[in-house]
Amino acid sequence: MIIYLHGFRSSPASTKAKCLKNHLSEKGLSDQFWCEELPIDPAMAIARVEQTIATDPAKSVLIGSSLGGYYATYLAEKHDLRAILINPATHAGQTLAPWIGPHTNLYTGEHFELTSGHVAALNNLWVPILSKPERFWLIVETGDEILDYREAVSRYAGARQTVIEGGDHSLRHFPDLLEAMVEFALFDKD
Q: What is the value of pTM for the model shown?
C-alpha cells in the first residue's frame, strides 16, 4: 500500500496527491492508495498514519512531500519501511519554528495555528542517523524556493537520489516520475 503524506498547509486535495491517486486508479490499483488529511499536531498525524501502517505493515511504502517527507523518514525508521521523499523538510522543527502563528490550508481554506508545542513535537521526531539509507529514494528539484535541496542531498547520503535541475518546491517533474515511483513502491521489494 502507498501511504501518501502531504506537506504543511497542504491536503489530500493537493496536485501531487490527486495525480498519484488518479495514476493508481487508471492502473486498477486504487485500493493500494491511502491519503488522508493530517492533523497539524505532529503526534496526532503520526498516530493516524501508524493506524494505517498497522493494517498491512509488510506492504506499506511511504511517499512524503515536504513536511510529509519528514514524517515519512521518522515512520520508515521506526517501522522498517521504504519511503520516497519529495523535496522533504530535513529538520521540520527548525524549518517551521519561524512560522509559529496562524495559517491557512492552501487547499481547504481551513485556518489553524502552528504552536511552539507543535514545533517541539516535530523536534521529538528527529532521526539523527538513518540506519538504512538504502530504503529511501530522495527526489528533489534544485529550484526549490522553500527548502535547500542540498540539505536533503546531504541528509540522505547513501539513498537513491534523483536531483533535477530547476523546478520548484511543488516538484514540477512529479508526473514524469509517477510510473517509477509506483514501481518502487509496489513492485520493487529488494
A: 0.96
User: Grid cell 516520475 — which residue?
Assistant: 177
Distance CA 59, CA 80 (A): 11
Q: What is the pLDDT of residues 52-101, one digit of tens each?
A: 999 987 889 999 999 999 999 999 999 999 999 999 999 999 999 999 99
Closest-CA residue to 140 (of 160, 163, 158, 166): 163
* CB 85 within 8 Å of CB 71: no
Q: Which of 98, 57, 50, 41 is nearest to 72 (CA)?
A: 50
How far is 18 from 24, CA to CA, in rounded Å? 10
What structural domains and CATH numbers belong to the chain?
A: 2-187 (3.40.50.1820)
Between CA 11 and CA 77 the distance in angstroms is 24
